[in-house]
Amino acid sequence: MSIEQTPGADVEPGQAYTIDRFTSADAEGVASLFRSVYGSGYPVKTYLEPNLLIRENEALRTISSVARTARGKIVGHNALYNSAAHPGTYESGAGVVHAAFRGGKGIFTEMVAHGLDLAKTLPAVNLVFGEPVCNHPYSQKLTMKMNFISRALEVDLMPAAAYRKEGSASGRVAAFLDFRTFRKKSHAVFLPRCYRTELDFLYAGLDDQREFRPAESPVPSGSVTDLRPQIFDYAGVARIAVHATGADFRACLDQLEKDLAEKGIVVTQMWLNLGEAWVGEAVEILRSKKYFLGGVLQRWFDTDGLLMQKIRKIPDWDGICMHADRHRQIFGMVQADWQRTHKE
Q: Record's InterPro entries (predicted)?
């Protein structure tokens, strides 16, 4: 998302700029731009450390687009980068625009479009997703304009403190998850019985091919769970990629929840692999512990994933801004499942 902050004095407004792919000569300028907006507190150090940003772009773990003036000043940045469980699935984000170049000039939209044009040419990129936030409708409108489709809702993702300077949130901020395929992969997905109706809707308009099967197989005896957590202390969020659901899943979950409670985590996201025929058992275990539906995570493990989430407070439902009917329908089914799991 773009950020509104106080203009720096190092760049004169009104200069012409071009949108281009990042080069190593841009690294200092990108880091300077991020520091001017966030200080040294930005949680992803890639964009604050020039040499690290160069390495990440060379390895294609990050694919940066920049806005560059004729004098070589970097006045905007957005990137495709790895944040899902599979390296071929990229997030579009880390967007920032110098304050002197904001105000309806379209620079952020141009950088997002540039990144998507790059994705068409890069075999490493199978799919791009975005996280349009729900404290305003603008990023939701942008992803729709760029031919993404919403398939999940992340409830209470970010704390209000992250938006304090722009004053756009009074409570925690939700985000939709929007997806666009660039390289197709037809595969089977296993749908938990309790979410069959919701998943039929969430898969509507799919820009790829799937074979839908019921997730009714038993967990293989002796199989071992593989949980890979990411902890975001500043946001009070834990994201857990479940690369394998084993016979010990309940015991692993019990220990994980104990550890997260000790860390003061508010929001826990579980990413389940819909490529596992026995994923339905994991869903029922999570629902028994008050996890509720988030939605479909397209190509998350290269196969699709399912987002389940748990909020350790009453969610800020009233603060969720929705632009389109599809957003409202996803909101309705997510909220309804939260209500069901908290009655059971």
A: Acyl_CoA_acyltransferase
SS3 letters across the chain: CCCCCCCCCCCCCCCCEEEEECCHHHHHHHHHHHHHHHCCCCCCHHHCCHHHHHHHHHCCCEEEEEEEECCCCEEEEEEEEECCCCCCEEEEEEEEECHHHCCCCCHHHHHHHHHHHHHHHCCCCCEEEECCECCCCHHHHHHHHCCCEEEEEEEEEECHHHHCCCCCCCCCEEEEEEEEECCCCCEEEEECHHHHHHHHHHCCCCCCCEEEEECCCCCCCCCCCEEEEEEEHHHCEEEEEEEECCCCHHHHHHHHHHHHHHCCCCEEEEEEECCCCCHHHHHHHHHHCCCEEEEEEEEEECEEEEEEEEECCCCCHHHCCCCCHHHHHHHHHHHHHHHHHCCC
What values do phi and psi take at 233, rounded to 5? -60, -40
Query: Using an 8 Å Cβ cutoff, are 112 and 78 in contact?
Result: yes
Per-residue pLDDT tens over the stretch 127-176: 999 999 999 999 999 999 999 999 999 999 988 776 655 555 667 999 99
The answer to whether the pTM exceeds 0.90 is: yes
Digit-coded pLDDT (tens) for 47-62: 999 999 999 999 999 9
Cα(10)–Cα(236) distance, integer angstroms: 35
CB 307, CB 294: distance < 8 Å: yes
Angle of CA points 91, 96, 99, to nearest 5°: 165
What are the structural domains of the chain? 15-125 (3.40.630.30), 187-319 (3.40.630)
**What is the distance between the alpha carbons of residues 312 and 302, in angstroms, rounded to a whole number?**
30
